[in-house]
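Subject: sequence -> structure tokens, single chain

Hey, anyone have a minute? Need the predicted structure for the following. Not urgent.
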Amino acid sequence: MLTTQKPSSARAVRSHLECYILPELGNVRLDQFGVENQQKFITHMPERATEKRVSRKTVLNVLGTLSSILATARNWGYNCERIDTNKLRLPARGVKYEAPSFTPDQLRQILALAEEPWRTMFSVLTLDGLRAGEVLGLKWKDIDFDRSLLHIRRTAWYGKIQTAKSESSETVLPIPTSLLTLLKNYRKIWKANEGGFLFATRNGRPPSSNKVVEYHLWTILDGLGIPAMWSSRISPRAHSITFRLGRNSEGSSTSASTHRCAHYLGDLRARCGGCASRGGRKGRLDFGP
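Reply:
Had a minute. Here:
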């Protein structure tokens, strides 16, 4: 069934199976996996974790994988109980983690030192608040220069193209004037590739986000003497950084200029009532897959 899922989703499922589900439940019959055994499974999860603890989110993600497996089993005629989180004791909700942020001055230094195509890539990530996979999956046909709009239609994950994270992620964003000028200049020096990707390796595929971090972002940080804000080891969760930008060159705040809303395409300083209550989306450089 993994062949029907996106590569990134399939990797997460394999991780859940190898780390938690198969070692603990490999010999448990489907009809034995009731509420009691479900609770035992949750209780034993920390024993199989590297740090001997698991977050509430990790538990819910693994239970989501289990629920999908059990649902398929029921569809195939097997007798097994559903997973109802209301009947289970889950880890307490932890303190919300606030990702480390570069200062506006550090951001300006990074963009000034970065060479192409990384300067344009980092600028798109920052000024339009895209995820790393979204910017790596961009093609020139996604950019409407006449109307200053950017269409998010796909993502790239370790060089593989897949659909956006969710249907709501397939949206249209306004392009600030400064970024539009940067994109026009970048297109003049852009090296063509068969797929028309803005950023591609020699084989014509989008680069992997972890390689961008390791060989380009970290090099810039070392040159500027800016300490890394995350673990020095390479891992999918080690490359998430957010930028707090203050005000951009057009004078609008970061939360407004990077706010992701399908109907928010006109005046960058305007927001609908529902969106204003959420405060917008921060500009960010998020290199998780």
